[in-house]
Design a protein that fits this description.
About 0% of the residues lie in helices and about 45% in strands. It is mainly beta and about 130 residues long. The chain has a single domain, classed as Jelly Rolls (Sandwich).
Length: about 130
């Protein structure tokens, strides 16, 4: 495979970021994954449930930003009660303001005693 340098008007900044989030994540029930700069584009986002979440009624894993907690992965996109990877979502429009990429786990009913997931995002910075 041959790689070339980016030319004006292109961007060569591509990164894959990930973070783990567990059933017992502390309030406000979020984990910071990465910083998103103005112009960053989340090309793909997905979650991999490593250990099933077992709250009594609902288990909800989302991936979003400070302003919109499910901007990239919404409730129902991951099967929190079953180990395995979710379908990848994206791309999403470039960020207009700098923000933080965050994973969030919420639950209802009997408190979960197990659950672990890793969220992923493939991010590029769009040229100005």
């Amino acid at each position: 495979m041959t790689f070339r340098e980016a030319v004006p008007g292109e961007s060569s900044n591509l990164r894959l970021v990930s973070a783990e989030i567990a059933f017992d994540v502390a309030s406000p029930f979020t984990v910071d994954v990465d910083s998103l700069a103005v112009g960053d584009v989340v090309i793909l986002a997905w979650a991999e449930v490593l250990e099933a979440f077992d709250a009594g009624t609902t288990n909800v894993l989302v991936l979003g930003t400070t302003a919109d907690d499910d901007h990239f992965l919404a409730a129902g996109d991951a099967a929190e009660g079953t180990p395995g990877a979710s379908a990848a979502k994206g791309p999403v429009a470039a960020e207009a303001t700098a923000t933080t990429l965050k994973a969030k786990f919420t639950q209802t009913g009997t408190a979960a005693e197990a659950g672990l997931a890793r969220v992923y995002a493939l991010i590029a910075n769009a040229p100005a």
